[in-house]
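Design a sequence for this backbone.
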């Protein structure tokens, strides 16, 4: 596809990278920015025709910023895709139409994604609809926040109608929990060190967007552990309507498993009083 390059960040993604690249063959410029994988990620990417660059990982924002600023792309637009995501044909077609017709003021497109578990789209338990900044003009967008990144554009932002497909369990359920336990540690430290001086509760309703709900849950009074806010988030995300699969997949379900870690952080800094910790995944 003329006008769009594809960027995929990887670390030991031999299970995912082949199918991910196959779903992006509509682009003639595929870039894999690898965090020094020790498996066959690089070999597979090269066999699929991708250009591969390597940089030791420090944090998500720095890695994405480095990938956007140090690589020379063949096209003015770059689509950022995770290795466990796929670009379906309808999204590829909309991207092509959008970059051809967009005005010069737009420098980023946001899109939603569908999370799949056991082959089924979990619409009501994955925080849907959450909008992700993924299609960007390098040099006009930079990434902030080491985890759960925020994309800052110096121009206008538009939105796409179609979806990315996300397959978070391709490496197995055990790996999924291990990964989100790592995320929970990063998030716990981030919130512990943040200045949180006042209660701010934003409007809460079922089906609400993840960001305001998370902000409210983070500041719940009298919450003693991550699990205290879990019930709020699972209600707001309609997780109960996803039945067993929805409850299991609920991105905040891992908060039920990190109470001990939360207490460890709080014990290390008496009197900090950070409560109602909620951990949200991409």
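Sequence:
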């Amino acid at each position: 596809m003329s006008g769009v390059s594809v960027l995929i960040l990887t670390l030991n993604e031999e299970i995912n990278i082949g199918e991910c690249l196959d779903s992006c063959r509509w682009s003639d410029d595929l870039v894999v920015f690898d965090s020094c994988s020790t498996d066959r990620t690089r070999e597979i990417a090269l066999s699929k025709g991708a250009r591969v660059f390597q940089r030791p990982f420090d944090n998500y924002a720095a890695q994405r910023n480095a990938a956007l600023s140090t690589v020379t792309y063949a096209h003015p637009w770059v689509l950022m895709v995770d290795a466990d995501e796929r670009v379906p044909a309808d999204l590829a077609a909309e991207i092509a139409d959008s970059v051809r017709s967009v005005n010069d003021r737009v420098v980023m497109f946001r899109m939603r994604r569908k999370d799949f578990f056991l082959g089924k789209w979990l619409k009501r338990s994955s925080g849907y609809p959450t909008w992700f900044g993924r299609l960007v003009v390098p040099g006009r967008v930079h990434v902030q926040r080491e985890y759960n990144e925020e994309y800052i554009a110096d121009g206008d932002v538009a939105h796409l109608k179609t979806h990315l497909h996300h397959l978070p369990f391709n490496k197995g359920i055990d790996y999924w929990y291990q990964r989100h336990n790592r995320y929970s540690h990063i998030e716990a430290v981030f919130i512990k060190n943040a200045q949180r001086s006042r209660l701010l509760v934003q409007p809460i309703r079922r089906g609400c967007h993840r960001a305001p709900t998370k902000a409210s849950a983070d500041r719940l009074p009298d919450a003693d552990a991550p699990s205290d806010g879990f019930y709020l988030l699972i209600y707001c995300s309609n997780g109960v309507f996803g039945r067993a699969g929805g409850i299991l997949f609920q991105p905040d379900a891992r908060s039920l498993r990190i109470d001990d870690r939360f207490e460890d952080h709080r014990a290390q800094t008496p009197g900090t009083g950070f409560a109602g910790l909620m951990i949200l995944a991409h």
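The chain has a mean pLDDT of 78.
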